[in-house]
Amino acid sequence: MTESCNQSAPELEWLPLLVPDMPSPHELLPWLERMHSARHYSNFGPLVRELESVFAQQFGMADEQLTTVANATQGLELVLQALDLAPSSRVLLPALTFVATATAVLRAGHQPVLADVDPQTWMLTPEIARAACEAMRIDAVLSVAAFGMPHDMQAWQQFERDTGLPVVIDAAAAYGSQWLKEAEGTLVFSLHTTKSLPAGEGGLVVSTRPGLAAKVRQLSNFGINLNPAVGMPVGALASLGSNAKMSEYHAAIGLRSLQKWDLRAQQRRALQSELMLDLHQASGHTLTWQAQGPGGPLMAPTLLCVQLPDTEARAALEQLCKQARIMTRRWYQPLLQHMEMLEQRCLLLDTPNARALGQTLLGLPFFLGMTPLHKHRVCGVLAAMADQRQS
Ligand SMILES: Cc1ncc(COP(=O)(O)O)c(C=O)c1O
């Protein structure tokens, strides 16, 4: 046997699902130098303050109406704590979301009530929440900007006014897409590496509710009072808080990422449109995508989640992707009610749309820097899936 016969074809590299788009160490240097010369590394230092003041300008809000936090999970927990709901309150949230939405409710001492989502936008809407309130007692709503799709905050403000229930939006993936647009509301964003404004880890709480963001800030700093204007000494323990402050290191990354955000968002939108078109064609026009809701467009998509015609098609696509060494993920699945840790701890409403989505959604590779070959490989498996279905 000759040597060349022994050589097998080099194995194709796995095509990743996501590739973080983080600033390089070189890009971060100016901010790190500033941090180091100020000798201020955490505890609401100059970089965190600067980041917060850019956010305040973007939202057209006063500085005290927002605060950074260590991550969105802590942001959600502390917002729920700051709302001062009675213990074991029922908090309505969608069955289709990331686990942190539910664990934040439980860790804040409340009970999640799992609701259905709209079949087109894949989100819990004010209409669904109204129906839930007719079915059982609900004490607060924690809706989710699913995969970054923004909510119509005027509609949620109207819901709050009609029902008197506080509404919080888990806008973890929606930085740059979810705005208040003159409405009242409370939003919690994630600045995780995989999100549209990556800071490594980080979160942002924005709220028009009087005193809420300031309370979250205090809770993120152990609950220690830092405000000389309230009738309590600075340094006194005002509430039972946690440590959920954003560090100056993370703020440095966030500030650099902000400088590139517009360009990156544009590139992400372009990549998403291109992939949606090409994959839809390759699949024989059998794919469904998340629809834009009344809240407006998704400005900086961070992942690509597709709905297959049925559960068999999804299984076939997963198998084909595995064979072609393409990573996939069932984003937001299994549904919360199917997780052992959660099923006994949540109340469940009827969720037919979420169940259907839970059987048909699949995440495909999506990252800036995808090459024509990467795209070709993904189109290839969708074409193979279409062929399999026809035969
Ligand atoms: C809907 C949702 N909520 C909360 C989180 C948690 O965000 P963080 O990682 O900043 O805690 C995520 C993270 O992906 C998410 O998708």
From TrEMBL:
Residue numbers bearing the N6-(pyridoxal phosphate)lysine modification: K195
Keywords: Aminotransferase, Pyridoxal phosphate, Transferase
Name of a matching Pfam family: DegT_DnrJ_EryC1
GO-annotated molecular function: pyridoxal phosphate binding; transaminase activity
Active site feature: K195
One of the GO BP terms on file: polysaccharide biosynthetic process
Gene3D superfamilies: Type I PLP-dependent aspartate aminotransferase-like (Major domain)
InterPro entries (alphabetical): DegT/StrS_aminotransferase (IPR000653), PyrdxlP-dep_Trfase (IPR015424), PyrdxlP-dep_Trfase_major (IPR015421)
Domain of life: Bacteria
PANTHER family assigned: PROTEIN RV3402C, TRANSAMINASE
Family membership noted in the UniProt record: Belongs to the DegT/DnrJ/EryC1 family.
Protein name: Aminotransferase DegT
Source organism of this protein record: Comamonas aquatica DA1877
